[in-house]
């Protein structure tokens, strides 16, 4: 589902909804809207257009939303997906993943959601249910700005590369400390997909880097150290501070982001204080490379992340 506003109508001051940027390259706060499933089509179009431009939008004070209302609103942006390919959904809500920090739902590595499947979600709607008085922020990075900021020589290399994304951990987590092997909570079922390192956005036409924590190897490179070095090189461009925005949650906050042009992670600095958020994913298409090829799923032994209805 795609909502587009005519170029002549696209300003941050139009209509009842206002969008105020909160960082130089990514993120805006929305005001003047109460999120629900009955929003007028033109308001939904303005919101979606702002998601495409700002990559992530923040809505304060949406206390009226519960899990069912969150899904009803998310459905205005596209078709909700099953909550997760392996993890169980929130009781009674097949589209909602309960990210409870007390049960390990911390997502504290840079990632684009669910890239280990052939058709990763196009967007996500995340709602704060309970948050600590301090700590537990989420940070997003603009992967399109990261690509644009690459030197021309590195863009040429990235355009040709493909990476294998998997939820297995001989999976490699790449961060400032280097490669750290860990076993994922979702190791009970294996998903493995080849994606282009640079994908062409299906709505904006812009190129963006597609990596993050689920990218564990580079197609055609048998040397693991070389693959890790390449992944780390491009990943560090994504997560440069200039490409990021950090959000301090309050109960009732909602974030909507373009999963095709961002990465994100939780800041794990809240200890054992309660932190609980609910996430709904919107179905997307298989990424397309610069030369027009589509992503390919490698492991057919696991089930699919079907669109739940």
Automatic annotation (TrEMBL):
One annotated Gene Ontology cellular component of this protein: cytoplasm
Domain TauD/TfdA-like residues, every copy: 19-280
Coiled coil (residue ranges): none
Keywords: Dioxygenase, Iron, Metal-binding, Oxidoreductase
Superkingdom, natural source: Bacteria
Pfam families: TauD
Residues in the signal sequence: none
GO molecular function: 2-oxoglutarate-dependent dioxygenase activity; metal ion binding
Cofactor: Fe(2+)
Family to which the UniProt record says this protein belongs: Belongs to the TfdA dioxygenase family.
Protein name (record): TauD/TfdA-like domain-containing protein
């Amino acid at each position: 589902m795609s909502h587009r506003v005519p170029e002549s109508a696209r300003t941050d001051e139009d209509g009842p909804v206002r969008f105020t940027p909160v960082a130089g390259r990514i993120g805006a706060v929305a005001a003047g809207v109460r999120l629900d499933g009955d929003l007028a089509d033109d308001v939904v179009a303005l919101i979606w257009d702002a998601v495409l431009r700002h990559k992530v939008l923040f809505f304060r004070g949406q206390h009226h939303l519960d899990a069912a209302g969150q899904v009803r609103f998310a459905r205005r942006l596209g078709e909700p997906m099953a909550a997760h390919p392996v993890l169980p959904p929130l009781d009674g809500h097949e589209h909602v993943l309960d990210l409870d920090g007390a049960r390990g739902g911390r997502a504290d590595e840079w990632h684009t959601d669910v890239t280990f499947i052939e058709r990763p979600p196009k967007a996500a709607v995340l709602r704060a249910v309970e948050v600590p008085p301090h700590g537990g922020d989420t940070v997003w990075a603009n992967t399109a700005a990261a690509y644009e900021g690459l030197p021309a020589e590195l863009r040429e290399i990235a355009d040709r590369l493909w990476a294998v994304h998997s939820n297995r951990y001989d999976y490699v987590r790449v961060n400032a400390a280097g490669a750290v092997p860990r076993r994922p909570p979702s190791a009970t079922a294996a998903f493995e997909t080849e994606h282009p390192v640079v994908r062409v956005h299906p709505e904006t036409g812009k190129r963006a880097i597609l990596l993050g924590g689920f990218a564990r190897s580079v197609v055609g490179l048998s040397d693991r150290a070389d693959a890790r070095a390449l992944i780390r090189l491009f990943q560090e461009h994504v997560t440069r501070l200039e490409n990021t925005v950090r959000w301090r949650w309050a109960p009732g906050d909602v974030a909507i982001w373009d999963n095709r042009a961002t990465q994100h992670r939780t800041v794990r600095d809240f200890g054992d204080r309660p932190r609980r958020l609910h996430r709904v994913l919107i179905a997307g298409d298989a990424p397309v490379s610069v030369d027009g090829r589509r992503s390919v799923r490698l492991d057919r032994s696991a089930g699919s992340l079907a669109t739940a209805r």
